[in-house]
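WARN no homologs supplied; continuing
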Amino acid sequence: MAKYYLGVDVGTFETKGVLIDEKFQVVAETGAKHGMENPKPNYFEQDAEEIWWKDFCIVSKGLIEKAGIRPEEIVAVGSDVLGCDCLPVDENCRPLRKAILYGIDARASEEIAFLNEHYGEERIRELFGHPLCSDDIAPKILWIKNNEPEVYAKTHKFLTGSSYIAAKLTGEYVIDQFLAKASFRPLYNDDAKIDEKECALFCRPDQMAEARFVHELAGHVTAKAAEETGLKEGTSVICGTGDSTSEAISVGITTPGKLMFQFGSSLFFYYCSDHLTYDHRIHGGDFTVPGTFSVSGGTNTAGTLTRWMRDTLYFDILEDQTKSGREPYQVMMERVADIPAGSNGLVILPYFAGERCPINDAQAKGMIFGLTLEHTRDHIYHAALEGIAYCIAQNIKVMEELNLPVENLIAVGGGTKNPVWMQIVADVIGRPVCIPKVSIGASYGEALMAALGVGDLKDFHELSSVIEPDRVILPNEENTKIYRKYCDIYDKLYTANKDLMHLL
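OK structure emitted
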């Protein structure tokens, strides 16, 4: 009987699924679109039942139908969900509120301020491994405790997205040990065991999921889940993880020196290191791959900003899509292809939803600087693409200061479909950018780790060996020289305007 591995990635605006065969080649892809709620400034939420689980079921059934295979031919399943999120569920795994999303949700600023005062700077460093920020889940649990006591009282488990999907599939509550140690501190120790003493301030120890390695089995598909997903009862399910981690694995970020930038709704990066790194601008910790460490961080906008540009500045092209049949992003890309480096003196700070690394300022604001009557919407869009690239350059500069050598830079995610954007990135950072042959992203990584989980790949080294490169984008040296000046302006714009941003 043929063997297949299924991977599902629930992202900010879309769920993607993939089936791979015994040679680890893609045999079917499908997806489902969804939205994200922004009920208040700095509040970002999704309905776990109606989006995460419903999408998983749609994608799972769709892949089986599209590939024309029998459910019993799928031997293992892996799934991830965007970032690290906070989802309280009852004893039947029913969500008690909408999921509070990853670092883009900055509602817990008062809780972060309280914890900083409560612990002090040195203890914060010991417990969290980095300065507290909107990526951390403990302050979000504390926010629920302070603001929604009725939800808090009913909570059986505080989960993240991948934990929720695994629980819906198997009935078992587990979490990737990397996510536990990276985002749920101080609720988990360095050995990924629940820290009962530190939990006391936030929740009961029994409200936390059991930490396992990402590729370890969470359990097997239950009869109820089989009916809803189309999978066969008893199918193996791995623990799973966050989307950025799966994305990193999907492109072979398994050995020190490799750096991945994930171009999704936000932009996230992972660097694989051979030692632990601490710096207030980025996050250091263990990595999903046993025996390695990570340096990670992200921006709050990437695809979200290009979507805003599309909806706000190119609404006519969006409306015309039904008539012309042309995808708006393709039209936008063609319109900016010939705009020179620097967008004729225009610089955009892409902080339209606050910002994470390296400034870690939830109150940062977006800025369009240098506008003249000569500029068009195309210049603004081009400058937005450059703004994300400037942020990438900032974070690479931090790594260089920390003596973290970047030997391979790999881009993945939806943004890689835009060659103009990828060339801008290569030009701004002055380095080659590699794009893998399979750039589906996190769902592919989950499918590979599912194969690893059932022993059909020996280890992460063998997993990495099956990943093939596609193309390398080389920087234009003349553009790189031009961009040095713009990177400097970009760096100074935030510093010069930080206080004014906070006044807003």
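The domain at 4-245 is CATH 3.30.420.40 (Nucleotidyltransferase; domain 5).
OK
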